[in-house]
User: Which sequence fits this backbone?
C-alpha cells in the first residue's frame, strides 16, 4: 500500500491535477509487482487503447443463448494480450444464471457474526464467478450501512455498524479474491433508494445529496471501506448519490483525496451502472472505469481530451494502470482461466449447454451460512427445540416456494398484488409512479419463501429447500402429523396441535425504500393463530428490521426467530434448528424497536417531491445511527444490537486488559495496542456457540461502540479463553483540525457482553 504520508500529498495535488502518470510503488508494497506489469503494458498503448481500457460496452440479452451476458464488459487491447474484463452481480451469487448457488445474503452473514464463515462464503462464491468467466464480482456491500430503518438495500450489507461491516468485509474480500477481483461498494454515504439518482419522471432533477461532515465520514461511512482496502480489494464502486453536492463518481474529495489518497487504495474505481453524469469531471475526479457504457468517454473522447489539453496524459495513463494492476494482482491474466464471460448465458429461455459451476465441497458451508444467520429472540419456557411433536400445524405464505423462481427481481413498472397469497404480479400504473416518488413502490412481502432481497443483489437458486418441504420430510421420518393452511389470514387450527408454526416474510428491493417495517395482514395471521393455539411459533424471513410488537407479548406466542435471507437451504436450516439438531447462534446486526416512531428522524429516507430538483439529506445525527442513536436518546429497544438467544447458557469470567500507553503513541494505525482477555463457559446442556462482544467507551466521545467480537463453539460444561485485539484506530477519534486519528487522553471503559445492553464484565484502562 502507498505510504500514508505520501498518499495524502498525492491526493492533495490530485484534487487540482488528478493522480499523475504511470506509478512505481515501493518493492515492499504488495501491489508493486502488479503496478510494474501494468506500467509495461500501458507504456505500449496508444491513447485510444488507454481510452478503451476505461470504457464499458453495453451488453444485452439479445435473441441468442450464446454470447456475453456479463453485467458489463470493459474494453480490451487485443494486440497486447489484454482481453478486457467481465463484471457481474451479485452479492450472494452469480446473478441471472443457471448452474450456480444461492448463498446467504449479506444481512445473514452479519447476523452470524462469524468471520470464518464470511471467508468461506467469499471463497466458494468467488470460485463460481471465476468458472463462469467473470473477472470482477460486484460485491461485497458495506454501503449502505443502514442509516435509515426503511432503507431498501440494507439487506445487502452486513449490519448497522461500521466495525462489524469492516471485520466481515475483510474475510469476504480475501475469500473472493482467491478467484476474482472483489468490487467493494457503494462508495460512499449511499444510504437510501429514494431519489438515489435522476428520475426518469423528472430528468432535470438531481440525485439526493448526502451532506456528511468530515468527522462522521471518517468514523462511520468510510470506516468499513478502509478495512476492505487493507484487505486488498481490487476495485471500489462509486455510488449513485451526491456527496456534499457533488456526484459520487465525479467527487474528487471522496475518490482522490479520501479513497486513493488517505486510504491508499491502489485498485480501480468503477461507476455504478449509469452512475456517471459527466465526462472530464468524472475522469479528473477519480473515476477509472465507467459502466455499462458511456456517452462521455466513448468515441475516443478521453484520448481527444488529452490531445487538446483538457485532460492530462498522466491521468489517462493512471486510469489504465490502476485497472490493469488489479487484473495482474488478482491473476486475471492466467491462461488457465475461462475466456471472458464464456460461462454466462445471454438468454436462458433458449436452448443452451448448461455450465454447472457449483462445487460439492461448498454444500456444508452454504448450509452452515443459512443456519448461523438465524436469530432466536423469544423462547418462552424452552418452547424450542421441539420435543418429539406428534401433531404440527403450519401457516403462512412464506412456508412454500415462490410461484416463479425469478431471483426476486421485481420490474420497476410492477408491484405486488395486495393479496399476499396471489401468484401474479399486478402492474399499478400511476399508483406505482406515485409510490416511486415516495420511495415505497416495492411490496412489503412476497408470496412464497423469501431467501433473498430484490434487485441487482439477488441471485437465482438451483433449488429451494422450503420449511414445508423440510418439515414434511421430518414427518415422514418420525411418523408425526402435519396440517397446513397457507392461504387464509384467519385459518382453522387443528385442535390436537402440539405446536403451530407461522411463516412470514418482509421484503425490499433495490430501487425503492420500504413502505414500513411491518404489515397488517401478516400480523393479523399471527394473532389469529395465537388465539386458537397455545404454542404458536413465528418464523420471519426478513430483509432487515421487522417490528413485532403487534403480537410479541401474546401469551400464546412462545417462540420467535428472525431467519433473515438464508439462500437455497432455508428449509433445511430452519428444520435443523426447530428440532434441535443445532442451536441458534446468530445475533442481531441491527436494532429492532418497540415502535416505528422510536427510530425518530432515522425511520424514513429523506424525501423530495416531483418538483424538488435538488434534494438534500443532512446527516445531522453524525455517527449516532442504529444502536448509537438509541443509546444517545435513551430509548429502550425491543431487541438491541447484538441480541440473540441459544438453547444453552453461558458465563463470563477471568477479565483482564493488557494496555501499554507508551507503545500506543508510536504504533501504526492498524497495529494491535491493547488486548482484552476473558473466559467463556457453556453452563447449559446444549453444544452451541457464544458471540462475545466488546464495546468501548472512548473518553469524551459519544456512546459506547462495538470494537470487538468473537464466536466461540462450546460443548456443555466446556470453557475457552477469548482474546480481543484492539487496534490503534479502534481507540481513536477523527480530529477535524489536525486531519488525523487521535487517541483522547483519559479512561477508556471496556464492556464485554452478550449484546450492546447485556454487559457481563467491565473494566478500564488509561491513555
Assistant:
Amino acid at each position: 500500500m502507498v505510504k500514508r504520508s505520501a498518499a495524502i500529498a498525492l491526493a492533495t495535488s490530485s484534487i487540482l491535477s488528478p493522480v499523475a502518470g504511470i506509478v512505481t510503488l515501493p518493492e515492499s508494497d504488495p501491489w508493486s509487482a502488479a503496478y510494474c506489469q501494468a506500467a509495461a503494458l500501458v507504456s505500449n498503448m496508444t491513447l485510444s487503447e488507454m481510452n478503451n481500457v476505461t470504457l464499458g460496452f453495453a451488453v444485452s440479452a439479445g435473441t441468442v443463448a450464446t454470447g456475453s451476458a456479463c453485467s458489463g464488459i470493459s474494453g480490451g487491447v487485443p494486440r497486447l494480450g489484454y482481453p478486457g474484463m467481465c463484471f457481474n452481480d451479485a452479492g450472494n451469487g452469480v446473478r441471472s444464471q443457471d448452474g450456480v448457488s444461492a448463498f446467504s445474503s449479506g444481512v445473514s452473514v452479519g447476523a452470524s457474526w462469524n468471520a470464518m464463515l464470511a471467508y468461506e462464503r467469499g471463497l466458494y462464491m468467488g470460485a463460481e464467478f471465476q468458472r463462469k468467466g467473470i473477472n470482477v464480482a460486484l460485491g461485497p456491500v458495506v454501503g449502505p450501512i443502514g442509516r435509515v430503518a426503511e432503507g431498501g438495500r440494507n439487506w445487502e450489507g452486513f449490519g448497522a455498524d461500521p466495525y462489524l461491516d469492516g471485520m466481515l468485509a475483510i474475510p469476504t474480500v480475501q475469500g473472493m479474491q482467491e478467484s476474482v477481483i472483489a468490487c467493494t461498494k457503494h462508495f460512499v454515504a449511499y444510504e437510501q433508494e429514494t431519489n438515489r439518482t435522476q428520475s426518469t419522471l423528472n430528468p432535470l432533477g438531481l440525485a439526493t445529496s448526502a451532506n456528511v461532515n468530515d468527522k462522521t465520514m471518517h468514523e462511520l461511512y468510510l470506516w468499513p471501506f478502509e478495512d476492505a482496502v487493507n484487505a486488498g480489494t481490487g476495485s471500489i464502486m462509486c455510488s449513485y448519490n451526491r456527496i456534499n453536492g457533488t456526484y459520487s463518481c465525479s467527487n474528487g474529495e471522496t475518490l482522490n483525496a479520501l479513497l486513493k489518497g488517505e486510504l491508499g487504495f491502489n485498485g480501480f474505481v468503477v461507476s455504478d451502472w449509469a452512475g456517471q453524469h459527466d465526462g472530464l469531471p468524472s475522469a479528473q475526479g477519480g473515476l477509472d472505469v465507467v459502466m455499462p457504457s458511456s456517452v462521455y468517454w466513448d468515441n475516443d473522447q478521453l484520448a481527444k481530451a488529452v490531445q487538446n489539453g483538457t485532460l492530462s496524459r498522466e491521468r489517462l495513463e493512471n486510469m489504465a494502470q490502476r485497472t490493469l494492476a488489479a487484473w495482474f494482482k488478482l491473476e486475471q491474466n492466467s491462461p488457465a482461466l475461462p475466456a471472458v464471460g464464456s460461462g454466462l448465458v445471454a438468454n436462458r429461455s433458449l436452448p443452451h449447454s448448461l455450465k454447472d459451476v457449483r462445487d460439492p465441497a461448498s454444500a456444508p458451508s452454504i448450509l452452515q451460512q443459512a443456519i448461523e444467520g438465524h436469530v432466536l429472540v423469544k423462547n418462552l419456557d424452552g418452547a424450542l427445540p421441539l420435543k418429539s411433536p406428534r401433531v404440527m400445524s403450519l401457516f403462512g405464505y412464506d412456508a412454500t416456494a415462490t410461484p416463479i423462481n425469478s431471483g426476486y427481481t421485481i420490474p420497476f413498472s410492477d408491484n405486488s398484488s395486495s393479496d399476499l397469497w396471489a401468484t401474479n404480479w399486478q402492474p399499478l400504473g400511476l399508483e406505482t409512479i406515485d409510490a416511486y416518488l415516495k420511495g415505497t413502490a416495492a411490496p412489503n412481502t412476497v408470496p412464497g419463501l423469501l431467501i433473498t432481497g430484490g434487485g441487482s443483489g439477488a441471485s437465482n437458486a438451483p433449488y429451494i429447500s422450503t420449511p414445508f418441504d423440510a418439515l414434511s420430510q421430518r414427518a415422514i421420518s418420525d411418523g408425526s402429523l402435519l396440517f397446513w393452511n397457507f392461504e387464509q389470514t384467519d385459518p382453522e387450527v387443528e385442535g390436537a396441535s402440539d405446536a403451530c408454526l407461522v411463516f412470514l416474510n418482509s421484503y425490499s428491493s433495490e430501487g425503492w425504500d420500504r413502505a414500513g417495517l411491518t404489515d397488517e395482514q401478516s400480523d393479523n395471521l399471527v394473532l389469529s393463530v395465537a388465539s386458537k393455539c397455545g404454542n404458536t411459533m413465528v418464523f420471519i424471513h426478513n430483509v432487515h428490521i421487522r417490528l413485532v410488537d403487534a403480537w410479541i407479548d401474546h401469551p400464546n406466542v412462545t417462540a420467535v426467530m428472525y431467519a433473515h435471507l438464508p439462500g437455497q437451504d432455508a428449509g433445511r436450516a430452519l428444520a435443523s434448528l426447530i428440532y434441535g439438531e443445532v442451536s441458534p447462534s446468530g445475533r442481531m446486526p441491527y436494532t429492532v424497536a418497540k415502535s416505528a416512531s422510536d427510530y425518530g428522524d432515522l425511520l424514513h429516507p429523506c424525501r423530495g417531491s416531483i418538483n424538488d430538483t435538488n434534494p438534500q439529506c443532512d446527516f445531522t445525527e453524525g455517527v449516532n445511527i442504529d444502536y448509537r442513536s438509541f443509546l444517545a436518546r435513551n430509548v429502550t429497544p425491543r431487541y438491541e444490537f447484538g441480541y440473540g438467544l441459544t438453547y444453552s447458557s453461558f458465563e463470563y469470567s477471568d477479565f483482564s486488559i493488557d494496555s501499554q500507553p507508551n507503545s500506543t503513541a508510536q504504533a501504526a494505525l492498524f497495529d494491535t495496542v491493547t488486548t482484552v482477555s476473558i473466559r467463556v463457559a457453556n453452563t447449559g446442556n446444549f453444544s452451541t456457540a457464544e458471540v462475545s462482544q466488546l464495546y468501548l467507551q472512548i473518553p469524551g466521545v459519544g456512546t459506547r461502540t462495538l470494537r470487538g467480537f468473537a464466536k466461540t463453539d462450546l460443548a456443555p460444561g466446556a470453557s475457552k479463553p477469548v482474546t480481543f485485539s484492539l487496534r490503534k484506530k479502534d481507540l481513536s477519534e477523527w480530529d477535524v483540525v489536525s486531519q488525523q486519528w487521535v487517541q483522547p487522553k483519559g479512561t477508556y471503559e471496556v464492556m464485554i457482553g452478550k449484546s450492546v445492553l447485556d454487559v457481563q464484565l467491565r473494566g478500564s484502562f488509561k491513555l
